Amino acid sequence: MANNLLHVEDLNIEFHDHIIPETVVYDFDLDMTEGEIVGLVGESGSGKSMSALAIAGLLSRHDMRKRGKIEFGDTDVLTCPREKLRSLQGNEISMIFQEPMTSLNPVKKIGWQVEETMRIHTDKTAEERRARALEVLSHVGLEDAERVYNSYPHQLSGGMRQRVMIAAAMAITPRLLIADEPTTALDVTVQAQIVDLLKHINKKHNTSILFISHDLSLVRSLCSRVLVMKGGYVVEKGPVEEVFNHPVEEYTKKLIAAIPKVEL
Q1: What pLDDT does 1 receive?
Q2: Cα–Cα distance between 203 and 35 in angstroms, integer?
Q3: What percent of the chain has pLDDT over 90?
Q4: Cβ neighbours of residue 244 closer than 8 Å, sequence gap 6 or more
């Protein structure tokens, strides 16, 4: 496929930190094209976050074994040299996490942290980095970008911190944005705002997004395709409306039945 961005084939992830090895992801397959938004859903422990971390090249524990292929463009993330992997991370592949306070440095100001990928991957001057940081902070809906730039993480609300994480991830406009439960710690109103922001980023920059969540209603509103994971396996996948309207697996039917119904 001409515009294929990501090809994951037979990904298996196995931990060796116990007497008996434990496999947490089995035979995971995924293809994504440029500009596509794909959802990855399942309960805690289903393997969705482990799969995402592997795609981002962030699984490097010595007690872990990975098999299969993760081809991003012409690079196999599983086997490429560490230097090549570093050139992709934050530059072509970015990741945002569920709780920004565990990802943001509490003793560094927001501006310094948003500029980090630019310091690593570009030759922009300090003035250019500052201008770009203020630009992306404004683009993610932070009205007083100058104040946010000079703030510490604890001085911002949860929703503002999540926007900061998205701004930092988009500072160099990656081709793939992996969003791992980015709305779980937020209230419903802010969740909707973050989903709208991701839609805007996708439309404006043609950024592909892998959206990981256990909230099927958010996945339905954002994604074109969805993969359902259970116990380390992908048990169902397909276009979002097809999976939601005609689920095949009993597990998927239970997940969909558990979506809260709003009485009007």
Answers
A1: 45
A2: 8
A3: 66
A4: 216, 220, 256
Residue type, 223: C
How, if at all, do strands 22-33 and 4-15 pair? Answer: antiparallel
- For the chain, what is the mean pLDDT? 90
Residue for token digits 């839609």?
A: 199
Q: Tens digit of pLDDT for each residue in 193-218?
A: 889 999 999 999 999 999 999 888 88
Pairwise pLDDT comparison (35 vs 261), residue with the higher score: 35
**Over the chain, what HEC string results?**
CCCEEEEEEEEEEEECCCCCCEEEEEEEEEEEECCCEEEEECCCCCCHHHHHHHHCCCCCCCCEEEEEEEEECCEECCCCCHHHHHHHECCCEEEECCCHHHHCCCCCCHHHHHCHHHHHHCCCCHHHHHHHHHHHHHHCCCCCHHHHHCCCHHHCCHHHHHHHHHHHHCCCCCCEEEEECCCCCCCHHHHHHHHHHHHHHHHHHCCEEEEEECCHHHHHHHCCEEEEEECCEEEEEEEHHHHHHCCCCHHHHHHHHCCCCCCC
Say how far apart CA 91 and CA 255 lie, in whole Å: 35
